[in-house]
Specification:
Blueprint lengths: L2 H13 L4 E4 L4 H14 L4 E7 L5 H14 L2 E6 L6 H4 L5 H18 L6 E2 L13 H7 L5 H4 L4 H10 L25 H16 L5 E6 L2 E6 L4 H5 L1 H13 L4 E4 L17
Parallel strand pairs: 1-2, 1-4, 2-3, 6-7
Antiparallel strand pairs: 5-6
């Protein structure tokens, strides 16, 4: 199918509902889904549900609020309280499953108490290609994934977003801050805060793709390969080290492979 065909298929899938709540993070996928749902069903028939938690960067939450406001769609913020879940905090291989099951259970409860017909989420075709135990929770809870059903992959989601004039079309992939910890390392709010602050600084400094992976007091910094030389500039390097130490890291290291999504999964025997 062409991209135009897939877009029509997405619209058809959405048109089968009278109303819908969208699990909305403000990332590339959920923004496209929210936009097409609003256009297809009408603003009064769509609700954006956004989780708030220490695992979500404050900037991302604020950006989701701005996008919802720009669309003119109602948004509800829901505290997801992952840090109260021992199965999440201990950060074993099924962490993402427990997180997603908790989050979407809360969203489903909200949908049941509202006048909206269904809960939709933004997984795309490429989300099957990485280690994503959270997908199991989505399947178990019978959450509809229209982008996946329309057979849209990540690149096509970006192309369609650009065609629709969405500012998120070239945004870096969104992943919660829990993905910055090696499996088996306990997740704490203090560690989450310092990761958030350091990544916010990299964003403000203009880096397009970045991650701060946390190994207790050591930070492993990933940026796009073409942006690595900037980190090696003497004045910038000293400013970065000072900032990272100020926010609680004793050591700041550079990953010479550069940014790649899901790098914490590379040590797994099978993904």
């Amino acid at each position: 199918m062409t991209l135009a065909d897939k877009y029509k298929r997405l619209q058809k899938i959405l048109s089968e509902f009278d109303s819908a709540a969208i699990a909305f993070s403000g990332g590339v996928d959920s923004t496209l889904l929210l936009k097409v749902a609003c256009d297809t069903l009408g603003l009064n028939n769509v609700l954006a549900l956004t989780a708030t938690s220490p695992i979500f960067p404050q900037y991302e939450i604020e950006q989701s609020q701005q996008l919802a406001s720009d669309f003119g769609v109602k948004q509800k913020l829901i505290s997801s309280k992952e840090m109260d879940l021992n199965d999440f905090v201990k950060n074993e291989l099924q962490r993402c499953y427990h997180c997603k099951h908790n989050l979407f259970s809360l969203f489903l409860k909200e949908v049941e108490q509202s006048s909206f017909e269904v809960l939709l989420e933004g997984s795309n075709l490429d989300d099957q290609n990485d280690y994503r135990p959270g997908q199991k929770a989505i399947t178990q809870l019978k959450i509809c994934s229209p982008l996946f059903e329309a057979q849209l992959n990540k690149q096509e989601v970006r192309e369609l977003s650009q065609q629709l004039g969405l500012s998120t079309w070239n945004k870096q992939p969104f992943a919660c801050l829990a993905t910055r910890f090696p499996y088996g390392t306990k997740i704490t709010e203090s560690q989450l805060r310092k990761i958030d602050k350091c990544e916010a600084w990299l964003r403000i400094e203009g880096f397009s793709h970045y991650r701060v992976r946390c190994y207790d007091q050591l930070a492993r910094i990933e940026v796009a390969p073409e942006e690595i030389p900037r980190l090696l500039d003497e004045n910038f390097r000293l400013r970065l080290v000072e900032l990272f130490k100020l926010n609680g890291f004793d050591y700041a290291t550079l990953d010479l492979q550069g940014y790649r999504s899901g790098s914490m999964n590379e040590i797994l025997p099978e993904v």
